């Protein structure tokens, strides 16, 4: 049996909190650990501990949901936004939200978002015994990508990169480009770490497909793939790439 997912409901509207509480009560392995009506009470609840996931509204008194998320401690609970305002979705995902659910929240959509959050949590289980050794997480030999025509099985070697646009991740392969429900973090866990690198908050890159790195004024790169795609590499990731490739440090690497 799985450990209960401890969920904090954060919304200034009583009816919205009641709806979420009712939906959560019907889900297995989920428990409501508290409610908050503004950003300050969210932070106080998180500091008290025992929160795995925050269901967070965007517009609340005082701190907005985005403001509160930015103040959560590193390694703190994952955030799922539950809001009526679709225009903040890109900003939310850029700040690391697990999911963005529009009101009125439906049970199936909420459950899917919670499963995404659960997949990112470290296991709260006892250490394995000799009779039940822990299985090490291994990269997949073939990555299954669901499409309208069925599951497409793709070799990791055929994947050049994956990018997040709006709420969806696209995987770019030699067989074509495919939308997937995987997050970039989930893909990174499933693919060989010696080839795939998170080069931007919105991009995962297979270095074996890169033919050219074009410097940007920001200190990052524009990585060109063999198929002609351009993938932005952040300044911080560019530093890591230079170290990996044994390149001379640039001025931006100093200090």
From TrEMBL:
Residue numbers bearing the 4-aspartylphosphate modification: 57
Keywords: Phosphoprotein
Name of protein: Response regulator
Sequence ranges assigned to domain HTH LytTR-type in this UniProt record: 143-247
Organism, scientific name: Corallococcus interemptor
Domain named Response regulatory: residues: 6-118
Classification via Pfam families: LytTR (PF04397), Response_reg (PF00072)
One MF term in the entry's GO annotations: DNA binding
Entries under InterPro entries matching the protein: CheY-like_superfamily, LytR-like, LytTR_DNA-bd_dom, Sig_transdc_resp-reg_receiver
